[in-house]
Amino acid sequence: MSVHSELKKITTETLRKMKFDKEKITMLTAYDFTTAKMVDAGGVDSILVGDSAANVMAGHETTLPITLDQMIYHTQCVVRGVDRALVVADLPFGTYQSNPEKALESAVRMMKEGGAHAIKIEGGAEIEDSIRKIVNAGIPVMAHLGLTPQSIYQFGTYKVRAKEDAEAEKLLSDARLVEELGCFALVLEKIPAGLAKKVTESISIPTIGIGAGADCDGQVLVYHDMVGMNKGFSPKFLRRYLDLHSEITGAVSRYVSDVKTADFPNQNESY
Questions:
Q1: What is the rounded CA–CA span in Å between residue 81 and residue 231?
Q2: Of 52, 207, 225, 236, whose CB has the highest number of CB atoms within 10 Å?
Q3: pLDDT tens per residue across span 117-174
Q4: Among 217, 131, 216, which Cα is nearest to 182's?
Q5: What is the C-alpha separation between 110 and 121, in angstroms, rounded?
């Protein structure tokens, strides 16, 4: 049994208190019931139903193709498997950027139909009106700055962001803005560790880093990357805790061999 399993349900307020108490926040992605159950049992504080489902579940090259209906489905599956963790769901590309009314409608659907505890959206000043609209409706919003994968065609690359002074200043300004707008936390993706430290110390809401150094208030990784299901993805920031790709393909290979040689099922496995 996990040491965390008896602790009470995590809320947005819990995360704020963890920052205040200097207790690191843990976050992993999940996209289905079975994975969510395992991740929650492992004691993670928050589960992100990421639009990275477009990549790891559906095989798309970017996160852009996934729809709101698909994200709602994944969120429903995850919520059913969770007892303790705070479930945050991404609003996908095109559901919030240009129109605050549409943004609110998307967020409401994610909460009502998906059962999410909070939503996450990418961007700062550009989506200020959408953030304000969603927060004012009483929906918790996690912001996301730095490398924002939904803007990949604008960036043209997945390289580290905010290395230059102008972009670093804008990121710091956006971080203060999302705090002011009422976001409860901020994901910082692929930015220099020194800048992430500065941002973390400049705002009162928790920062959760991915490729943003050790000074963020917490860390997030994609579950499939962390357990080594993805062979081809090896960014500098990733630590693999298992090599499931080898484990699973090996198990499948042994199963195939046992069936082909009539070793499975044996007498004990038959009625």
A1: 27
A2: 207
A3: 999 999 999 999 999 999 999 999 999 999 999 998 887 778 899 999 999 999 999 9
A4: 131
A5: 12
Q: What are phi and psi of 174, to 5 degrees?
A: -65, -40
- Name, in order, each residue with C-beta under 8 angstroms of 27's C-beta and a sequence gap of 6 or more: 44, 45, 46, 47, 48, 88, 208, 218, 219, 220, 221
Residue 101: how many other CB atoms lie within 10 Å: 10
pTM listed for this prediction:
0.95
Provide the token pair at 24: 């690191």
Place of tokens 């009539």: 262
CA–CA gap between residue 64 and residue 135 (Å, rounded): 24
Residue 271, amino acid: Y
Both structure tokens of 148: 């924002």
Geometric angle at alpha carbon 171, from 170 and 176, rounded to 5°? 95
- Strands (DSSP E) contained in 190-255 are 207-210, 218-221
